[in-house]
Amino acid sequence: MHAHFERHVYHRHSHDTYSFGVTEAGAQAFTCRGAARTSAAGMVMAFNPDEPHDGHPAIADGFTYRIVHIGPELIRDVLGDAAQRPVGLPLFVEPVLTDAVLAGALRRLHAAFADSGLAQDEALGATVRALVGRGATRPVRSRALPVGVRRVRELLDAEYARDLRADDLAEAAGCSRYALHRGFVTAYGMAPSDYQRQVRLREARRLLATGAPPADAALAAGFADQAHLTRWFKRCYGVTPGVFQRP
Question: The HTH araC/xylS-type domain covers which part of the protein (predicted)?
């Protein structure tokens, strides 16, 4: 995505991909990993999969930025091909990097989207290798999560369209509603309701990408109606479902 925002505020969310952005003008502020961050012109942003963050303009004139979302499987393929052996996924500890080389690589990757498929593949490989080589610190290591919290996430992933209540989650976790809520926020950085909405948004986005009408995607993903989907889609992705589907 290439966009300019002056008033838009991103609701706290995460992506199931790596997300790499470069701020071209102005400045944007966001919270990530428990701290306030600012990305000004020329700075690079790097978010790991499932890393909660929000976002808003840091100055009155807003900000212009480019961002690309790359699935973990593509990252692994690029790194494995370069190393000629299986590799672990990288971890980006710093969400904001001041690195002109990385900023240039991301701009070239975006430019390649208008070029041939071969040019896109080459730009993707070069960008991923540059990002990992200059910005990543170590492989991702899975965290040991409480069994109850993990069960609740699995329930929300599997039954995202169901109108689950707090008691349903507490029963699945085998603990009180309060203990489950506290444990879930500690593990995933957001409340169960926010996580459920995020899973619904990802399913709606998948359906939209296949050409499903927004109204149908909304109902299939568990939203009350198209307006409900549109409101949250824009708050978390910055565009409406209709704009997302536009060629």
Answer: 150-247
Classified as helix, coil or strand, 39 is: strand
Is the pTM above the cut of 0.70? yes
What residues contact 171, with CB distance under 8 A and at least 6 apart? Answer: none
Class of domain 2-139: mainly beta
- pLDDT for position 58: 97
- Average pLDDT for consecutive 10-residue bins of the chain (247 residues)? 95 94 97 95 96 96 96 89 68 94 94 88 92 80 76 96 94 92 91 95 96 97 96 94 91
Do 2-139 and 147-245 come out as alike in CATH topology?
no
Q: What CATH number has the domain spanning 147-245? A: 1.10.10.60
Which residue ranges make up each domain of the chain? 2-139, 147-245
Contacts of 236-244 with C-beta under 8 Å, sequence gap 24+, read: 236/10, 236/11, 236/13, 236/198, 236/201, 237/201, 237/205, 238/1, 238/3, 238/5, 238/8, 238/10, 239/1, 239/3, 241/204, 241/208, 241/214, 241/217, 242/214, 244/205, 244/208
